[in-house]
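Hi R.,

Here's the chain you asked about this morning:
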Amino acid sequence: MFSGIIEELGRVSDNAIATSGRLEVAATAVVRDLAVGDSVAVNGCCLTVVETSASGFGVEVMPETARRTNLEPLRVGDPVNLEASMAYGDRVGGHLVSGHIDAAGTVVDLRDEGNARWVTIRAPEAVMRYIVAQGCVAVDGISLTVVEVLADRFTVSLIPHTVAVTSAEVWRPGAAVNLEADLVAKYVERSLMAHAAGSVG
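And here is the predicted structure, written out as tokens:
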């Protein structure tokens, strides 16, 4: 489990997802307490560490994960948001994030207003059904608050610090971003569906 507070901006050092399913990331902060078998979020995607060193780590990416996320097209040198998994009792600075990506969305617009950067993202219906104004969403692993919702897109607003320490700094229109809708909303929907089915039966 993660909180959506990015610990470090890593860099892709090798991407062989298409051939061997391996992704190598250069990092310094998150690897201090990272061991083989641990979970780490890379652009919000929960992955298992299979190799570590003082200068980075390696993970394995399954075909389903590659299809559902923006990881496979990453090039050497590209920035990636990193967060090590939480320990029970840790402060949750953002919101509860599972690291299980629902789908990739597309950045369609960016604009600055004062010290805020507004980012509009087009998302599939499977994600939009859980998006509500003032609700939570994880975008490339960043815990963000939704400020506006339309039929097929939503807008978030970022402070300068978030832009500076995450991959949001390089987002441009057309960029693919990993999306994870609020976990609580999914469980509420599932519970209501089960209750409705039981009532009908």
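One quick note: Helices lie at 63-68, 125-128, 160-165, 183-200.

Cheers,
M.
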